[in-house]
Design brief:
Length: 353
């Protein structure tokens, strides 16, 4: 076991380094870097100042920024670290990341780590509900479909989950807002944030209800599209296990259907689901959240990542990517360990690194 874990951890390092190296290289060539973005902001501020001054004098006299001198451009390059060679900046970044020093945002007066910590709560809440509800609904539903394979229930539920899968979360979110968020029909659920403004003054039961009330629409929009694949995978896995010889033997020994299903079949059928844990986890927490967060005004990691990319805030982009990739690799390792724990027949020596 320890030899396998050491090999896996050793493989995580080059994978993480490769992702960071590729992303860093891309940021060096992407047009419209942080300096250009800062100049656009300076232009905008100058334009507003000129417009206000011209309006005060009875007319708009601003004629645009005449340009920055070389000293100011050098100061901007030094401010963002572009006065150093790319290789030096890259090595400095790697050294800092090893100490979990993710740097400082270019355009926000905060460190990258504090920014991520501030936004993490919203994304974790949305991702945790999505992850838990996906399995809490999909596994029992998939088992019920396998037991009733070919029935009307199986057909109708398959149609429903496939329709849910075909509808993007953003479109479903818009539909939910129209129906239940005061769009055109019922004004039942709020559309901003995960708690009310007076949340701190509420009692604990009221806080729980307030949180669930705010989370209902975004969690529904984020979760429904995840049901289909997990439900059908569970059904097919259980159907495959139900046809095996050990099931016939267990029934011949007099075990009830529930005993066979939940004591014997479930353990073997869990293997593909455990293998899918990392993808589901990463998908729930770090992908697909941007549109949901934007639609329901949730200030989370998805929105932070998007704003950082558009503003060329490279420390935030690279720092967030570093943490997300590291978490994904760790989750995959945990899933492999759980895979072996669930099925003792699998040996670590047989697993490929």
């Amino acid at each position: 076991m320890w030899a396998y874990l050491i090999k896996r951890v050793a493989m995580m390092a080059p994978t993480l380094l490769g992702v960071l190296t590729l992303t860093f290289a891309v940021t060096q060539f992407v047009p419209g870097g942080p300096i250009e973005h800062a100049l656009i902001q300076i232009d905008g501020a100058d334009a507003r100042a000129g417009a206000e001054g011209g309006a005060a004098e009875g007319g708009f006299t601003y004629s645009g920024r005449k340009g920055l001198d070389e000293k100011q451009l050098e100061d901007l390059n030094a401010l963002y670290g572009f006065d150093k060679p790319p290789l030096e900046r890259y090595l400095t970044m790697i050294g800092n990341f090893l100490r979990f020093d993710l740097g400082h945002s270019y355009f926000r007066d905060q460190s990258v780590m504090s920014l991520i910590q501030d936004k993490l709560g919203v994304s974790v809440a949305l991702g945790a509900w999505t992850f838990l509800l996906t399995y809490l609904v999909s596994v029992p539903l998939g088992v019920a479909k396998a037991v009733r394979a070919g029935s009307r229930f199986d057909f109708v539920s398959t149609v429903l989950v496939l329709v849910g899968y075909a509808v993007p979360g953003f479109v479903l979110g818009v539909l939910l807002i129209v129906l239940f968020g005061g769009g055109s029909f019922w004004d039942i659920f709020p559309l901003r944030g995960l708690v009310s403004e007076n949340f701190d003054q509420l009692s604990w039961p009221q806080k729980i209800l307030d949180y669930l009330w705010h989370a209902a629409l975004p969690v529904t929009a984020a979760t429904v599209s995840h049901f289909a694949m997990k439900t059908l995978m569970t059904k097919n896995t259980f159907l495959d296990e139900l046809s095996r010889q050990y099931v016939l033997t267990a029934r011949a020994k007099g075990l009830s259907d529930n005993q066979v299903l939940w004591k014997h079949v479930l353990r073997n059928a869990l293997l593909p689901m455990i293998t899918a844990f990392p993808i589901t986890f990463i998908s729930a927490f770090f992908t697909g959240s941007l549109l949901i967060e934007s639609l329901f005004s949730l200030d989370g990691l998805g929105l932070l990542s998007y704003e950082s990319i558009t503003s060329r805030d490279f420390p935030v982009v690279l720092g967030a990517l570093y943490l997300f990739t590291l978490i994904g690799l760790v989750v995959k390792l945990v899933a492999d360990i759980a895979y072996v724990l669930v099925d003792p027949r699998i040996k670590y020596s047989a697993l490929k690194v």
